[in-house]
From TrEMBL:
Coiled coil: none
Domain of life: Eukaryota
Keywords: Lipid metabolism, Lyase, Membrane, Transmembrane, Transmembrane helix
Protein name: Delta(3)-Delta(2)-enoyl-CoA isomerase
GO biological process, one term: fatty acid catabolic process
Keyword Phosphoprotein: no
Upper classification of the organism: Eukaryota, Viridiplantae, Streptophyta, Embryophyta, Tracheophyta
Pfam families with a match to the protein in the record: ECH_1 (PF00378)
Single GO term (MF): delta(3)-delta(2)-enoyl-CoA isomerase activity
Reaction catalysis annotation: a (3E)-enoyl-CoA = a 4-saturated (2E)-enoyl-CoA; a (3Z)-enoyl-CoA = a 4-saturated (2E)-enoyl-CoA
Pathway recorded for this protein: Lipid metabolism; fatty acid beta-oxidation
Species assigned in the record: Salvia divinorum (Maria pastora)
E.C. number(s) listed in UniProt: 5.3.3.8
Length: 247
């Protein structure tokens, strides 16, 4: 599932797997609930100077929605559409994770040291900053290859985060498997590094530099939401005005 650890002012949310099969960190109802519980804990402990790093063990950051889980639900049901219904449910549940990250009152960094596919890519892109390894990870929006349309909030997030229409086309309409250096050029990733250790160090350095500012978490979250109005609107995140506490 996932673990949450706090070191100084930095929270570390780590996707873990009990065995090799779980190392893909596929987003099923249990993992989604665990991530949301961790983010709720982070939110409850947030103070000026806090930051979040999300990382994952193994070869995958996350391989997207757990289609095997949906198939297993279908196998135990008499309804022909049970797998589709379960996938729709996961799409709906995952909205909460994206909403939590976009409204979290602190800077967030995704340390991508394994493949990030489909909803797993959206999980990474829901962070403020993304750092990635060059040698052992690709970004892959696989929906076109599996014959699935994009959920509306996926599309809105991609449009808000990826400024180039050519890059969005490569990502969504070619289902390209994008390495770290290409992802930097496309504006999906902020920086690429040779090793897992360098990615981890860069994520910590970014979190520390941002945390030193000790910004108001409430102001940070509201400014973030204002930058991505389309996806925040679809997620039901309302903007509010924040004034300096010293007025």
């Amino acid at each position: 599932m996932c673990t949450l650890e706090k070191r100084g002012s930095i929270f570390f949310l780590t996707l873990i797997g009990a065995d090799k099969k779980d190392q893909e960190h596929r987003l099923n109802p249990s993992l989604i609930a665990a991530i949301r519980a961790a983010l709720s804990e982070v939110r409850s402990q947030a103070v000026p100077g806090s930051a979040l790093i999300t990382q994952a063990e193994g070869r995958f950051f996350s391989n997207g929605f757990d289609l095997r889980h949906a198939q297993a639900v279908a196998a135990s049901s008499t309804a022909a559409s049970a797998a589709v219904v379960e996938l729709i449910s996961m799409v709906s549940l995952f909205r909460g994770v994206v909403s939590d990250l976009l409204s979290l009152p602190m800077p967030t960094v995704a340390a991508v040291t394994g493949h990030a596919a489909a909803a797993g890519l959206i999980l990474a892109m829901s962070h403020d900053y993304v750092v990635m390894t060059k040698s052992r990870a690709v970004l892959y929006l696989s929906e076109l290859d599996i014959g699935m349309s994009l959920p509306d909030y996926f599309t809105a997030l991609i449009k808000g985060k990826v400024g180039s229409s050519a890059a969005r086309r490569e990502l969504a309409l070619r289902a390209a498997k994008i390495g770290a250096e290409a992802a930097v050029r496309m504006g999906i990733v902020d920086a690429a590094y040779d090793s897992i250790e360098e990615v981890a160090a860069a994520a910590v350095q970014t979190a520390k530099e941002l945390g030193k500012k000790e910004w108001s978490g409430e102001a940070y979250a509201e400014i973030r939401k204002s930058l991505y109005p389309d996806v925040c609107g679809l997620l039901g995140l309302e903007e509010k005005t924040v004034f300096p506490s010293k007025l």
